[in-house]
C-alpha cells in the first residue's frame, strides 16, 4: 500500500492543486495520527459524523469506513470534486455541503463532530456547535492548535473557551502533533482534543447567557480583580458578595460552577 504522504502529494500534483493556507488548509499526511483521531472519536456504525473542512478527504475516507453516515462541509469549491474522487468508492451515505461551517445548521438528530479544523475558526466553531445549534453534538474530536487545546483543558487558569466548553462537556487533550504531520507544515504544534458532551448543559440557556456575559466582561480586564470589572457595574459588588466570590479574585481563578452561581444570583 502506498504511504499516505506519497498518495496525497501525488493526488494534489495530479490535480494541480495549491493549498490555500489563508483558509487553514494543512492536510494530514500521518497515518498514525489519523488512526488516533478516528479511534478517539468512539465512532459506532450507526453514528452520523459531521466533518468540517475535509479538504480532499484524508480524514473523510477513514470516517466513511466506520460511521453510518458522514456529512462533510467544505468552503473551497475547488476541492469538492477532489473530495468526491479521493473518497470513492464508498457504500456509506455521504453528503458534501459547499458552505461555511459557521453558517450551516447542524443536524437536529444526534451527531458527532470529527474534524481537522482550520485554526482560525476554533472559537467560532465551538460557539456555533454549543450555543447556536438546536442540538449540540454528542462529542467533538478535533485536530487543532496546541496552544488553544491546552487553554481549553486548563482548569487552574481558565479562559473564555475553557468556561464555554466546560458548560457543555468534558475536554481531554489526547496528544501533541508535530507540524511534520501536515502538508504543508503549519508554523505551530497541533493537538488532538476530544470533548465528550454532557447529557445536558450544566445550566439552562438563560443562565448560560448570563455566565458568558459575565465572563466576557471579566476577561476584558484579565489582569484585573473582579472588583474592577464586574464590581464597577451597578450592584456588581453586592452580586459578588451574594455569590460568595471574593472581589479581589481574578477571573481566571473561578471555576465554571462559581460562574454559574454568580449568574443565578442575578434577578
Walk me through this protein's architecture.
By secondary structure, this protein is α/β, with parallel strands linked by helices. It folds into two domains: 4-197, Rossmann fold, CATH 3.40.50; 205-264, rRNA adenine dimethylase, C-terminal domain (Helicase, Ruva Protein, domain 3), CATH 1.10.8. It is 36% helix and 18% strand. It contains ten helices and nine strands. It has helices at 4-14, 31-40, 58-66, 80-87, 122-132, 146-153, 160-168, 205-219, 236-242, 256-264, and strands at residues 27-28, 48-52, 69-74, 94-98, 112-116, 139-145, 169-177, 182-183, 190-197. It has a seven-stranded mixed sheet. A two-stranded antiparallel sheet has the order 1-8. Helix 5 links the parallel strand 5 (112-116) and strand 6 (139-145). Helix 5 (122-132) packs parallel to helix 7 (160-168) and helix 7 runs antiparallel to helix 8 (205-219). The protein is elongated and about 65 Å long. The model has no long low-confidence stretch (mean pLDDT 94).
How many distinct domains? 2
Nearest-integer average pLDDT = 94
CATH architecture classification of the largest domain:
3-Layer(aba) Sandwich
Give the number of helices. 10
CATH superfamily of the largest domain: Vaccinia Virus protein VP39
> Order of strands in the sheet with the most strands?
4-3-2-5-6-9-7
Total number of strands: 9
Amino acid at each position: 500500500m502506498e504511504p499516505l504522504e506519497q498518495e496525497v502529494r501525488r493526488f494534489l500534483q495530479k490535480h494541480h492543486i495549491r493549498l490555500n493556507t489563508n483558509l487553514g488548509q494543512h492536510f494530514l499526511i500521518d497515518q498514525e495520527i489519523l488512526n488516533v483521531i478516528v479511534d478517539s472519536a468512539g465512532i459506532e456504525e450507526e453514528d452520523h459524523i459531521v466533518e468540517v473542512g475535509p479538504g480532499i478527504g484524508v480524514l473523510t475516507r477513514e470516517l466513511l469506513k466506520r460511521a453510518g453516515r458522514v456529512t462533510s462541509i467544505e468552503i473551497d469549491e475547488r476541492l469538492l470534486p477532489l473530495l468526491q474522487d479521493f473518497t470513492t468508492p464508498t457504500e456509506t451515505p455521504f453528503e458534501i455541503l459547499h458552505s461555511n461551517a459557521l453558517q450551516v445548521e447542524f443536524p437536529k438528530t444526534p451527531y458527532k463532530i470529527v474534524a481537522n479544523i482550520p485554526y482560525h475558526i476554533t472559537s467560532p466553531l465551538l460557539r456555533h456547535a454549543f450555543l447556536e445549534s438546536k442540538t449540540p453534538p454528542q462529542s467533538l474530536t478535533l485536530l487543532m492548535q496546541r496552544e488553544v487545546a491546552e487553554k481549553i483543558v486548563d482548569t487552574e487558569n481558565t479562559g473564555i473557551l475553557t468556561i464555554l466548553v466546560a458548560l457543555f462537556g468534558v475536554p481531554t487533550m489526547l496528544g501533541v502533533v508535530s507540524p511534520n504531520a501536515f502538508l504543508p507544515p503549519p508554523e505551530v504544534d497541533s493537538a488532538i482534543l476530544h470533548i465528550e458532551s454532557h447529557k445536558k448543559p450544566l445550566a439552562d440557556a438563560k443562565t448560560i447567557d448570563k455566565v458568558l456575559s459575565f465572563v466576557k466582561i471579566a476577561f476584558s480586564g484579565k489582569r484585573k480583580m473582579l472588583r474592577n470589572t464586574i464590581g464597577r457595574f451597578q450592584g456588581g459588588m453586592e452580586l459578588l458578595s451574594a455569590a460568595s466570590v471574593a472581589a479581589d479574585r481574578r477571573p481566571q481563578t473561578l471555576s465554571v460552577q462559581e460562574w454559574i452561581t454568580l449568574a443565578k444570583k442575578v434577578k
